[in-house]
Specification:
Layout (H helix, E strand, L loop, with lengths): L1 H6 L4 E3 L9 E6 L2 E13 L3 E8 L2 E11 L1 E7 L5 E7 H14 L10 H10 L1
Antiparallel strand pairs: 1-2, 2-3, 3-6, 4-5, 6-7
The structure holds zinc ion (ZN).
Zinc ion (ZN) binds next to α2.
């Protein structure tokens, strides 16, 4: 998964995107690709942030998506150790996006239908 992510120039990839049914994601984190097992968001900040997002499943599509600015994340690392960390900004966003994939939620489902239509008409 790390390899695919690097090859595709992505900053995140979720198991379901590569036919992997386990709850795992690969994220470019702290300057290197890392795998996170069973990632779970324990807390989302009430403060949100709107940023443009892309997705390896939708090449060339970028959408402005509103997400929590900060999250507390729990996961299991490759040594099978359960860890927690606090993330904000872009890294918080990448994890929220990838965990959405694990739950079958795509970023295009995070914007309303009128917005989608408007974008289609605009392009
Ligand atoms: Zn994606």
């Amino acid at each position: 998964m790390k390899k695919i992510m690097m090859k595709e120039d992505g900053i995140g990839l979720a198991g379901p995107q590569v036919g992997e049914s386990k709850r795992l994601i690969a994220v470019f984190f702290d300057g290197q690709p890392e795998v996170f097992l069973n990632p779970r968001i324990l807390r989302k900040s009430r403060k949100t942030e709107i940023m443009e997002e892309g997705c390896l499943s939708f090449p060339g599509l970028f959408l402005k998506i509103k997400r929590a600015k900060e999250i507390d994340l729990e996961f299991v690392d490759l040594n099978n150790i359960k860890k927690r960390m606090n993330l904000e900004g872009l890294s918080a966003r990448v994890f929220q996006h990838e965990i959405d994939h694990l739950d079958g939620m795509l970023f295009i489902n995070r914007i309303s239908l009128p917005k989608k239509l408007w974008r289609l008409l605009k392009n």
